[in-house]
Amino acid sequence: MTCSWTYDHYSFCIQKARGHGYALIPFNEITLYKQDQPLIILRHDIDYSIQRALNMARLEKSLGVRATYFIRVHAQTYNIFEYNNYLALKEIISLGHEIGLHLEAIDFAHITADDPLDVFQREKKVLETVLKTTIISAAAHNE
Questions:
Q1: How much is the pLDDT for 39?
Q2: What residues of the chain score a pLDDT lower than 50?
Q3: Which of 8, 34, 47, 60 is deepest in the core (most CB within 10 A)?
Q4: Who contacts 66 (Cβ-Cβ below 8 Å, separation ≥6)?
Protein backbone atom coordinates (compact mmCIF):
# COMPACT_ATOMS: atom_id res chain seq x y z
CA MET A 1 0.00 0.00 0.00
CA THR A 2 1.39 3.42 -0.91
CA CYS A 3 1.33 6.13 1.72
CA SER A 4 -1.78 8.22 1.14
CA TRP A 5 -2.02 10.02 4.52
CA THR A 6 -5.53 8.69 5.10
CA TYR A 7 -7.17 7.02 8.08
CA ASP A 8 -7.22 3.78 6.06
CA HIS A 9 -3.47 3.98 5.51
CA TYR A 10 -2.87 4.78 9.17
CA SER A 11 -4.97 1.73 10.14
CA PHE A 12 -2.92 -0.38 7.73
CA CYS A 13 0.34 0.84 9.33
CA ILE A 14 -0.94 0.09 12.84
CA GLN A 15 -1.95 -3.43 11.83
CA LYS A 16 1.35 -4.01 10.02
CA ALA A 17 3.38 -2.87 13.06
CA ARG A 18 1.39 -5.16 15.33
CA GLY A 19 1.92 -8.01 12.89
CA HIS A 20 5.67 -7.50 13.25
CA GLY A 21 5.46 -7.72 17.05
CA TYR A 22 5.60 -4.06 17.99
CA ALA A 23 3.82 -2.78 21.06
CA LEU A 24 2.08 0.51 20.23
CA ILE A 25 1.94 2.73 23.30
CA PRO A 26 1.50 6.28 24.59
CA PHE A 27 4.49 8.07 26.12
CA ASN A 28 3.41 7.49 29.71
CA GLU A 29 3.75 3.69 29.35
CA ILE A 30 7.36 3.52 28.18
CA THR A 31 8.69 2.39 31.56
CA LEU A 32 6.34 -0.60 31.56
CA TYR A 33 8.25 -2.33 28.76
CA LYS A 34 11.61 -4.10 28.62
CA GLN A 35 14.45 -2.38 26.79
CA ASP A 36 14.67 -5.12 24.17
CA GLN A 37 10.96 -5.13 23.36
CA PRO A 38 10.11 -3.48 20.05
CA LEU A 39 7.99 -0.38 20.69
CA ILE A 40 6.35 2.36 18.71
CA ILE A 41 5.32 5.36 20.76
CA LEU A 42 2.22 6.90 19.23
CA ARG A 43 2.08 10.68 19.57
CA HIS A 44 0.11 13.45 17.95
CA ASP A 45 1.09 17.11 18.23
CA ILE A 46 -2.18 19.04 18.08
CA ASP A 47 -1.29 22.30 16.38
CA TYR A 48 -4.52 23.01 14.50
CA SER A 49 -7.65 21.07 15.35
CA ILE A 50 -8.81 19.33 18.49
CA GLN A 51 -11.84 18.00 16.57
CA ARG A 52 -9.54 16.23 14.08
CA ALA A 53 -7.56 14.87 17.00
CA LEU A 54 -10.79 13.43 18.39
CA ASN A 55 -11.43 11.66 15.07
CA MET A 56 -7.96 10.09 15.26
CA ALA A 57 -8.48 9.14 18.91
CA ARG A 58 -11.72 7.37 18.03
CA LEU A 59 -10.00 5.51 15.19
CA GLU A 60 -7.16 4.44 17.46
CA LYS A 61 -9.65 3.24 20.06
CA SER A 62 -11.33 1.10 17.39
CA LEU A 63 -7.90 -0.33 16.51
CA GLY A 64 -7.17 -1.11 20.16
CA VAL A 65 -4.25 1.30 20.53
CA ARG A 66 -3.67 4.35 22.69
CA ALA A 67 -1.59 7.42 21.97
CA THR A 68 -0.39 10.63 23.54
CA TYR A 69 -2.06 13.82 22.30
CA PHE A 70 0.14 16.85 22.93
CA ILE A 71 -2.01 19.94 23.50
CA ARG A 72 -0.90 23.58 23.32
CA VAL A 73 -2.30 26.03 25.86
CA HIS A 74 -1.25 28.99 23.66
CA ALA A 75 -2.58 27.76 20.30
CA GLN A 76 -3.84 30.44 17.92
CA THR A 77 -5.96 27.91 16.04
CA TYR A 78 -7.92 26.49 18.98
CA ASN A 79 -8.91 27.32 22.53
CA ILE A 80 -8.89 24.60 25.19
CA PHE A 81 -11.53 26.55 27.12
CA GLU A 82 -14.02 26.55 24.22
CA TYR A 83 -16.89 24.20 25.08
CA ASN A 84 -16.65 21.81 22.08
CA ASN A 85 -12.87 21.61 22.35
CA TYR A 86 -13.12 20.94 26.07
CA LEU A 87 -15.63 18.14 25.46
CA ALA A 88 -13.44 16.69 22.70
CA LEU A 89 -10.39 16.66 24.99
CA LYS A 90 -12.39 15.00 27.75
CA GLU A 91 -13.57 12.36 25.26
CA ILE A 92 -9.99 11.73 24.12
CA ILE A 93 -9.12 11.04 27.75
CA SER A 94 -12.19 8.82 28.21
CA LEU A 95 -11.08 6.76 25.19
CA GLY A 96 -7.95 5.83 27.14
CA HIS A 97 -5.48 8.19 25.50
CA GLU A 98 -2.94 10.33 27.30
CA ILE A 99 -3.00 14.11 27.14
CA GLY A 100 0.44 15.69 27.21
CA LEU A 101 1.61 19.28 27.21
CA HIS A 102 2.85 20.67 23.89
CA LEU A 103 4.85 23.33 25.66
CA GLU A 104 6.02 26.72 24.49
CA ALA A 105 7.88 27.67 27.67
CA ILE A 106 11.14 28.75 26.06
CA ASP A 107 9.39 31.00 23.52
CA PHE A 108 7.29 32.61 26.25
CA ALA A 109 10.28 32.95 28.57
CA HIS A 110 12.03 35.02 25.88
CA ILE A 111 9.01 37.32 25.69
CA THR A 112 8.30 37.60 29.41
CA ALA A 113 11.84 37.25 30.81
CA ASP A 114 10.42 34.59 33.16
CA ASP A 115 12.30 31.43 34.01
CA PRO A 116 11.42 28.75 31.38
CA LEU A 117 10.80 26.21 34.15
CA ASP A 118 8.27 28.55 35.78
CA VAL A 119 6.51 29.04 32.44
CA PHE A 120 6.45 25.27 31.88
CA GLN A 121 4.97 24.67 35.33
CA ARG A 122 2.25 27.28 34.72
CA GLU A 123 1.35 25.79 31.32
CA LYS A 124 1.18 22.32 32.87
CA LYS A 125 -0.99 23.54 35.75
CA VAL A 126 -3.41 25.25 33.34
CA LEU A 127 -3.88 22.06 31.30
CA GLU A 128 -4.20 19.90 34.41
CA THR A 129 -6.72 22.29 35.95
CA VAL A 130 -8.87 22.63 32.85
CA LEU A 131 -8.98 18.90 32.11
CA LYS A 132 -8.81 17.64 35.70
CA THR A 133 -6.05 15.20 34.76
CA THR A 134 -2.40 14.68 35.64
CA ILE A 135 0.03 15.67 32.90
CA ILE A 136 3.03 13.34 32.77
CA SER A 137 4.39 13.81 29.25
CA ALA A 138 5.56 17.00 27.59
CA ALA A 139 7.08 17.88 24.23
CA ALA A 140 8.31 21.24 23.02
CA HIS A 141 6.41 22.91 20.20
CA ASN A 142 8.57 23.59 17.11
CA GLU A 143 11.47 21.48 18.39
A1: 95
A2: none
A3: 60
A4: 24, 25, 26, 29, 42, 60, 95, 96, 97, 98
Q: Which residues, at least 6 apart from 42, have a Cβ–Cβ distance to it below 8 Å?
A: 24, 25, 26, 60, 65, 66, 67, 68
Spell out the residues 6+ positions from residue 121 whose beta carbon is closer than 8 angstroms to its own. none
Q: Measured between alpha carbons, how far is 72 from 47 in angstroms, rounded to an integer? A: 7
List of long-range contacts for 54-60, beta carbons under 8 Å, 24+ apart: 54/88, 54/91, 54/92, 55/7, 56/7, 56/10, 57/91, 57/92, 57/95, 57/97, 58/95, 59/7, 59/10, 59/11, 60/14, 60/95, 60/97
Q: How many domains does the chain have?
A: 1
pLDDT at 3: 77
Any domain includes 2: no
Q: What is the pLDDT of residue 80?
A: 96
How far apart (Å, rounded) are the C-alpha atoms in residues 2 and 76?
Answer: 33
pLDDT of residue 119: 85
CATH of the domain at 16: 3.20.20.370
